[in-house]
Design a protein that fits this description.
Layout lengths: L5 H13 L10 H10 L4 E4 L8 H10 L5 E6 L4 H9 L4 E4 L4 H13 L9 E3 L2 E4 L4 E4 L2 E2 L4 H12 L7 H8 L10 H13 L5 E4 L3 E4 L6
Parallel strand pairs: 1-2, 2-3
Antiparallel strand pairs: 4-5, 5-6, 6-7, 8-9
């Protein structure tokens, strides 16, 4: 979230975190651009009229650097000409202020599905069904009662489609930049998630590498 109105930025970040997203915040364009250069974000919500570096220049730099992050421009400049200009310089979507928070969430989720590999709106393997939009996870029709972080972890693992996801990647995608990089929170979350998912087990530990959904989970 790159927004110079600090109260707005913090309020939106809190709301997105309540939706289970990991959110970093920058209050000027230069810091936002620097964060984008060192972190792999799915979506960047970007104001246009920013101090330090204009939002348009941040967007252009993302395009030049080959960033896979999807850009949602969120700005008070909402005329047709403004929207066309924003999309022309590389934004993927455009939402004028004032905006409905539910619409922002829906747009961010839609962009996140397109950020790396294309993912379906409903995720699942074997008898596990995960609906990211509704924040619902069931196994064999049983509601799993996952916490936001547990839900985030299983969502990332399912999105990886069998590829191994490291603990560092899970910290980056499910938590945020304020988390202690030496914490054991990923291991603890995986442990409680396995207990809630039940048997047969779906999450496999690849020693020294990370975690993945078992390749034969659908068998």
């Amino acid at each position: 979230m790159v927004e110079d109105e600090e109260r707005l930025a913090n309020a939106v970040a809190r709301g997105l975190r309540r939706e289970g997203m990991a959110v970093d915040v920058a209050f000027d364009g230069l810091i936002g651009s620097e964060k984008a250069a060192v972190n792999s974000y799915d979506v960047i919500v970007l104001d246009r009229n920013l101090p330090g570096m204009h939002g348009d220049d941040v967007c252009r730099r993302l395009v030049e650097d080959g960033s896979t992050a999807r850009v949602l421009m969120l700005t008070a400049a909402g005329s047709v000409e403004d929207r066309v200009e924003g999309l022309t310089i590389g934004a993927d979507d455009y939402l004028p202020k004032p905006f409905a928070f539910d619409e922002l969430v829906a747009r961010v989720r839609a962009l996140a599905r397109r950020a790396a590999r294309s993912t379906p709106p409903i995720l699942g393997v074997a008898d596990l069904i995960v609906d990211p939009a509704k924040r619902e996870a069931t196994r064999a029709g049983r509601d799993l009662g996952l916490t936001k972080k547990e839900f985030g972890v299983v969502e990332v693992l399912l999105t990886a489609q069998g590829a191994v996801v490291s603990a560092e990647q899970l910290l980056e995608q499910v938590w945020d930049e304020n988390v202690d990089p030496f914490t054991n929170v990923v291991r603890v979350t995986i442990m409680t998630l396995r207990r809630k998912l039940g048997e047969p087990g779906l999450i496999e530990t690849v020693t020294g590498v990370g975690y993945r959904i078992k390749p034969d989970a659908d068998a």
